Amino acid sequence: MAKVTVTLDADLAIEVMLLSGAGNPQDAVEVVVRDYLARGRRTEARTGEAADAQRTQPPRRVAEDG
């Protein structure tokens, strides 16, 4: 897998390390990014896509003028 180098402010890196419990900044950022991606996939699985809403709702009836 390809590696990417990211430059972060030291205060941000320290906060991420403290919140994630990781021993070094690289591991801490990796944990946060992996959690963010997993959370996004869980949300998509629960809510579905915008097109799914139209599929599950019955069509609305339009009142006829006349």
Give a quick rundown of the structure.
With 66 residues, this protein is an all-alpha fold.
Describe the structure.
62% of the residues lie in helices and 0% in strands. The chain has helices at residues 10-20, 25-47, 50-56. By secondary structure, it is mainly α. The protein has a domain at 9-15 and 22-44.
* Spans where pLDDT lies below 50 across 5 or more residues: none
Total count of strands:
0
Instruction: Report the β-strand fraction as a percent range.
Output: under 5%
Largest sheet: none
Q: How many separate helices?
A: 3
* Element-level helix/strand string: HHH
Structural class: mainly alpha
Task: Report the helical percentage.
Answer: 55-70%
Shape: rod-shaped
On the 0-100 scale, what is the average pLDDT?
79
Report the C-alpha radius of gyration, rounded.
Answer: 22 Å
CA distance, first residue to last residue: 66 Å
Structure characteristics:
3 helices, 62% helix, 66 residues, mainly alpha
Outline the fold blueprint.
Blueprint: H1 10-20, H2 25-47, H3 50-56
Helix pairs in contact: 1-2
